[in-house]
Each structure stands twice: as C-alpha cells, then as structure tokens.
Specification:
By secondary structure, the chain is α+β, with helices and mostly antiparallel strands. The protein has helices at 4-17, 33-39, 123-129, 138-141, 177-185, 196-208, 214-217, 229-238, 252-272, 283-291; strands at 24-26, 44-50, 53-58, 62-67, 73-78, 87-88, 91-92, 118-120, 155-158, 162-167, 171-175, 315-319, 322-326. The two termini are 28 Å apart.
Length: 332
C-alpha cells in the first residue's frame, strides 16, 4: 500500500501543476462519471495530504477525497513542474521539462517506487495484482498529447499542458467542507500537517493510553497518519522495540523517539520517493539502496535472512491481517 510519503509527493505535484488552473475532468472508466461532471470546469483551489489521503479543493467549496488503498496510483503526463524540495537519487530534480518526459528522472528501484510520473502503488504490483487496473503500454502513451487512456482510469484531471490519471483507488469521492473536516478529524497526527508540538503530544497520548500492541497502533490511522507496513517494521526495529509490547507499556521516551523517527523518515521519503530506513551508508551503499529494496531496509521483506546486526533469522508473522517482520533478538 502506498504510504504517507507517496501521498505527500502526489499533493506536491498537484500544487505545482493544477492549483489555480481550470480543470477538465472525466471518468474514462465510468465509475466516477457523476463526480467528474461536477469537477469539470472548476478551478483547483488548494490541495492537502494527510496521512494516506489527499484532499483537492475546487471552486464552489467542493472537495475531492482520494485514498489510494492497496493498488491506487496517479500517473502524470505532459509538462510537469517538479517541486524543488523533491530530489532524485542523483541530486536535486529539475524544474520543468518538455511534454512527455520528466527532466532528470531519478534512478528507479526495481518497482519504480520513486518515479515522479507515476506515484502510488508500484507499477508491477498494479499489473500483477489487479489486472483490471493494469497499465501495460502506459510508458509509450505518455509522449502523446493529450495522452490516450490506458487501462481502467477512474478519474482524469487535465489542464492545458498537464494530465493526471487516477487508477485503482479505494476511495474517490466528493465532499462538502464539513465532510472533509470530519474526515481529517478522525485521522491521527501527520508530521507535515499542523503544529509539530501538538502533533507529538497527540501521538504520545494516543499510544500510552492503549493496551493494544505497538505494532498495531503504528498502523492505526487514528493514532498516527501515514505509517504502513514498511515504515512500521523499520521504525520498531530502529528503536529495538518488541512489536507485541502494549502501547501503555512503552516508555514515554521511546514513544517520543518513535515520533521523531517518523518525522525524519517521512521527510526522507517525500524528498527521495523511497522508504529509505538505513543510516550512515557510503555513497556506493546509498546508490545500491536507491536501486533495490533489498539494500534499503533493516528487516522489512527479509524473513529468514540474518539480522544485519546480530545475525538472528528475521521472523515473519501475521498481525492485524498484515505481515510483520522483526528480529526476535534485537527486539526481544
């Protein structure tokens, strides 16, 4: 599932390319035809990412709420202005491009995770897991204008020079301002939204009042926004914290350390497009990690392999219907 860093990158693409411009909206797939008709011809006013959800405000106080879920993604085409705070694996991204390509495209990992033209679930996941949403042929289509519709596109938003196609979301709905605020109110703190001090205190209070295992709390979007399976496993390992520890039994200083680590890791993810969770890498190790997830994480997706620190076999279990990776010795 796309985690919080991806949604913030998407929001920044919308901020640079759609805000202040009139939208042409359509639903090639037909499943969002009524909503697209409402959006068509309205100007985009603002955009906000909170955790795993994006909210796009349009004229007339109509909000578009998108939750990508497991398989959703936005594909961008045309002339794409890149947020200057987003870097490639080679360095800072360029500011603009010619239609059809992104200037200074970063080194992509084996799943295309840090692409700027396709953000969300990795392309490979979308093709093999949900064939109705597949995007084979998309790369060839991005050079045309307007780009032809490829696969099942729930919503297409266009300006005169930029297009964004939404595929496979869990939620794509219109909301009133009151409904949008009510949705956000149910979400836990996001390090990139709101007051930093209050965000930390909300997180600490939410964790330390519950008997739920910390591994489940970090995935609870009402406790903290944006953390998914990868960041959950890595953050717990980085604090050497047993994933089964009840939230109320986690020392307050460790809870605060978890929050500060999430602040740091989210910022890295937004900038690079990848969930980089290892520290102190040499330039060669960093490039290898950018190119392959196998070199990027401490425990995630490493079941049966030796712990990078102690050599103990990384364990894999299911908790809350999701896979959990951890080191039984380092996190005892």
């Amino acid at each position: 599932m796309p985690e919080g860093h991806s949604v913030h990158r998407i929001a920044r693409q919308f901020e640079r390319n759609f805000i202040g411009k009139t939208l042409r909206a359509s639903s090639p797939q037909g499943r969002f035809a009524e909503g697209a008709a409402v959006l068509d011809g309205r100007a985009a006013v603002s955009v906000q990412a909170v955790g795993k959800q994006m909210f796009l405000e349009t004229e007339g106080a109509i909000w578009l709420r998108v939750h990508l879920g497991l398989y959703g993604a936005w594909d961008f085409a045309g002339e794409i202005l890149v947020d200057p705070t987003i870097a490639s694996a080679n360095g800072r991204m360029g500011q603009t491009n010619q239609r059809g390509t992104v200037l200074d495209e970063p080194i992509l990992d084996d799943a295309g995770e840090n692409s700027l033209a396709s953000i969300g679930a990795p392309r490979r996941t979308r093709v093999h897991v949900r064939m109705s949403e597949q995007t084979e042929g998309l790369d060839d289509a991005l050079g045309e204008w307007p780009p032809p519709v490829v696969g099942q596109v729930r919503l297409r938003l266009m300006t005169d020079i930029t297009a964004a196609d939404l595929r496979g979301p869990t939620a794509c709905v219109l909301q009133t301002p009151e409904e949008m605020l009510a949705t956000v109110a149910k979400l836990g703190p996001d390090p990139l939204v709101g007051d930093p001090v209050e965000n930390e205190e909300r997180f600490v209070r939410a964790v330390r009042k519950k008997s739920t295992p910390i591994a489940l709390l970090l995935m609870d979007q009402s406790v903290v926004s944006g953390i998914g399976n990868v960041y959950r496993a890595e953050m717990l390992y980085r604090q050497r914290l047993n994933p089964h520890t009840p939230g109320r039994d986690v020392p307050e200083d460790v809870v605060r350390a978890l929050w500060h680590d999430w602040v740091r890791l989210l910022a890295i993810g937004v900038e690079t497009g990848q969930m980089m969770t290892m520290d102190d890498l040499s330039p060669e190790q960093y490039r290898a990690a950018m190119a392959s997830r196998d070199d990027r994480h401490w425990v995630y997706h490493r079941a049966g392999l030796p712990c990078r620190i102690c050599g103990t076999e990384i364990a894999l279990e299911e908790i809350g219907a999701r896979k959990l990776y951890w080191c039984p010795r380092c996190q005892a």
